[in-house]
Each structure stands twice: as structure tokens, then as C-alpha cells.
Amino acid sequence: MWSLLEFFPESLMFDVLDVGASRNETPPYQGLVDAGRARIIGFEPDAAECEELNRQYGPPHRFFPHFVGDGGQAVFHETNWLLTGSLYEPNTPLLEKFQNLAELVTPVATHPVATRRLDDIPEIANVDFIKIDVQGSELPIFRNGLRALSSTLLIQTEVEFVELYKGQPLFADVDVFLRGAGFQLHTFAGFSGRAFKPLISQNNRNLPFRQILWSDALYVRDWMALERLGEEKLQKYAVIAHDLLGSYDLVHLVLAELDRQKGSDLAPRYLERLAPGGAV
After folding, report:
1. Within-domain flag for 267
2. FRET pair for 253, CA 20 to 30 Å: which of 28, 55, 114, 168?
3. What's the number of domains the chain is made of?
4. How far apart are the C-alpha atoms of 205 and 64, rounded to whole Å?
5. In Å, what is the CA distance from 159 to each residue of 45, 62, 102, 140?
């Protein structure tokens, strides 16, 4: 699919906030980075991993070895796999009921740590896209990042539907907060789960039968209040919805508002580029 970036000036740059950055997977914003149209502020508390991220991406991107949270002291629960460590204690009795979960979230050690609030980090300014994956700590981070949220157009956040970590907020808690902060739930990036032991689904220990455990939820700025956004934010919203989400109907909605504000013809041009003759 072609990029909607071609509709807008080359000066249109996207500011990405990645809390829980990782070299183990391709981030959803990578296309914007490859196009030279994104600046990342990222956080990875593991110092060695953080250094590698800074080496891999280089300027203008910056990664910091901070634990992001409520600004207070906390305990980091180290596990046997870097990606499953958390500021919440693994809920081992629950994890052990499923295939191949406790084996990947085995407690190793605990470490006292200091956390930083997003709103206290001066490098964070006008954010367009937040990607967050911190093993249960998402909601405290959002609650202490209202300044960052106020400008954000898209949030991709991991959410859990059961208590994989003791006392962690679940999807319903995150959903209530983000809707109250001016976002609409748009979609989920698939669902993940496991089978209850001793059964195995399709001879694959990582597949569920029916029980879902977690997902990535995608929230977009409230499309019932597009008139509150200015020209540049509407341009970015449209690009994000097209290039990152493939939500072409949402793109048209955003472009129609941009046309209303600016007297342009982007929405009909988009339809013709997207579906000549009217068929998508």
C-alpha cells in the first residue's frame, strides 16, 4: 500500500514515545522511521539494551534507561526472560495453570528502583504516537503522563484480561481511563492466550483453545471531536490511520474534517487514489 505521506509536506514529522522499547520485534512505527519522518523518545531500563537501541537508531532518536512510573520508589521483579520483568510481582499460581507461561515468567530476583513520571521528563514534548509495553504498569504510567497524552493521536498499549501479575490493572481499568482522557478504542492487534494444562492446542504450547489472556489495544483520538484538532494534527492523524492502521474509512473521516477547516479537497482525492471507480 502506498503511503499517505505523499499527500503532505516533507516537513511533516512524527514524534513517537516508546515506553518499553525492544530490539526483539519490529515496532509498529518503523515505516515512519525508515521514511525519515519520525523522532523516537524511548525507554528501556536495562542499561545494555538501552545502549544498543541508541547505537542501532542513532540521532535524532534517543533512548533512556529509566523505569517509567508514578515518580516514586518501586520494586522491579526480574524474571528469567528480559521481556517479562515487571514492577508487579508475577502471579505464579495463575501462570502455572497454563502451558508455557510460568516457564517464561520465572522470578529471579527483586531490585529496588526509582521511577520517573512521563510528565517530569523534559525531553517529552509534542507526542503523536505512544507505544507502551511494560508488563502490567501501563495505567500508572498513563495517569502520570497527562501532558504527553494531551497531544497524542494514537496509543498502542499492551493490555491483560486476567491478572498475570499480582494486583496489576486490567484492560477494563485502562479502557475507562483512556476513554476519559479523550480517546476511542479503535481495534485490537490480535489476541494471545494459552491452553490450560495439560491440554495442548494444535500441538503448539503457545496457542489457546478459547481463553484469551492479553492483547495490544489501539486507541485513537476521539473522532467525535475532530474539530478540536488543528491542521498539522489532522494531517498526522490521517497518515497514522492510513500507514500504521490501514483504517481507510477513518482516514477519510479525518481528511473530510481537514477539508472543512481548510477548504481543500483531500478527502475526494484520497477516495480516488484509494479506490478508482469507487470500489475498495
Report:
1. no
2. 28
3. 1
4. 35
5. 20, 25, 18, 13
DSSP β-ladder status, 62-64 and 38-43 = parallel
Strand arrangement, sheet containing 38-43: 62-64, 38-43, 14-19, 129-132, 154-160, 212-221, 183-193
- Residue 104: burial class (beta carbons within 10 Å; 0-12, 13-18, 19+): middle
237 lies in some domain: no
Give tens-digit pLDDT for 53-101. Answer: 999 999 999 999 999 999 999 999 999 998 999 999 999 999 999 999 9
Looking up residue 101, the CATH number of its domain turns out to be 3.40.50.150
The CA distance from 7 to 50, in Å, is 35
> In angstroms, rounded to a whole number, what is the distance separating the alpha carbons of residues 166 and 267?
47
